[in-house]
């Protein structure tokens, strides 16, 4: 960590043109050579897409709706974040993953081209969750303000430009969502959307169940919907990141479980900013069959 002005700043570096923390870049060979297993389940996403939410849903499914079992540990200890590298005494994603007995559930924000190739070789199942760009940039901005391990976002106006240019950790949102979209038909990937989950959690959880080849009673399904709702997760210390040291995550600046609402971007974008964003968006997403809803 470096002190830049009054901010603690992580140093960043690029790996194949994608911005990552310096700690990730220094650990890159190990990350790239990570050994996946055929019964692994990977939850992949761009930052702030609803990863934690999906993790909680999957954990509830795997534990047949047993809330206590899902409170056995923090989200970040239950599901190793494979590329996330921290100095000792903190556990890095790789250490946690290697020690974990199968079947493992893991998380990544890597763009598809940087996914350790053993995941493809072992044909592990992957759930990719995507969220519309406007709500993602808002959520990413507030998270960057409260998370000391992420680069300081600057002002909202500045951050929108940095986001559009893809000069944020894990690179361009546009390339990320398109890259995984294009990969989904060649691999065992379930591609889901934050907005759909919000609109009809039951329908989306049923998609996940089918993908995981799992059947559960209606009562369990209803329990999962309730336990993974925004309001319940917001008050669950094992899912809301409040157990993380305040020097890393300062929820008094902006809580991790912030709004959880599609369309919150409307309270951030000015009319001009929105028009410019849309114009740039059309260019960057041209030719793709992937579409998003920016409100529900
Ligand atoms: P907001 O900042 O818009 O509130 P990730 O887990 O990928 O970092 O994503 C975090 C975003 O998902 C935050 O968005 C957070 O509030 C939202 N989120 C987390 N759990 C949720 C839930 N159960 N329902 C809806 N949104 C949720």
Structure explained in plain terms:
With 296 residues, the chain is α/β, with parallel strands linked by helices. Helix content is 41%, strand content 11%. The N and C termini lie far apart (40 Å). The relative contact order is 0.16. Bound molecules: adenosine-3'-5'-diphosphate. The site of adenosine-3'-5'-diphosphate has 19 residues, from helix 3, helix 8 and helix 14.
Index terms:
single chain, about 300 residues, alpha/beta, 4-stranded parallel β-sheet, two-stranded antiparallel sheet, 8 strands, about 10% strand, globular, binds adenosine-3'-5'-diphosphate
Distinct ligands, ions and cofactors found in the model: adenosine-3'-5'-diphosphate
What order do the SSEs take from the amino end to the carboxyl end, as H and E? Answer: EEEEHHEHHHHEHEHHHEHHHHH
Overall 3D shape: globular
What ranges have pLDDT less than 50 throughout 5 or more consecutive residues?
Answer: none
Report how far apart the termini are: 40 Å
Whole-number mean pLDDT: 96
Count of beta strands: 8
Protein structure class = alpha/beta
Largest sheet: 4 strands, parallel
How are the strands of the biggest sheet laid out side by side?
A: 6-5-7-8
Q: How many alpha or pi helices? A: 15
Strand content: 5-15%
Q: How big is the Rg?
A: 18 Å
Multimeric organization:
single chain
Helix content: 40-55%
